[in-house]
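Hi R.,

Here's the chain you asked about this morning:
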Amino acid sequence: MSEQSLILVVEDNEANQLLARAVLEMEGFDVEVVGSAPEAEDSIRQRPPHLILMDVQLPGEDGLSLTRKLKADPATTSIPVVALTAHAMLGDKEIALNAGCAGYISKPIDTRTFGFQVRQYLDTQTRGTRQPVAS
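And here is the predicted structure, written out as tokens:
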């Protein structure tokens, strides 16, 4: 991989932000962390990520609403979004997938397997198809 993969972590909990960043950076990823849907939209416009890890419950606009918006926009539809959530009830995975998520990782994350899980979502995507997002 000639370019570090940029992972956008959309997470409002500071402890979860720090843990995700630490694990992903140790795995060799470039990591951007934001705490809300508007911050995520700004970050995506400035520097489109290779993958978005999206907390489902965010203050204001929730993560699944933002995912639906991203998937409806031709400029961002190709960016894979993976739900990152403490919701592990029966049916939650299907709800995330129906909103446009490429997958689902439950919290608390397992630091031993988190990097591998993220890499699997990157490996299943066609690399090199990211386009700059229009402002």
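One quick note: Helices lie at 14-26, 37-46, 63-72, 92-98, 114-123.

Cheers,
M.
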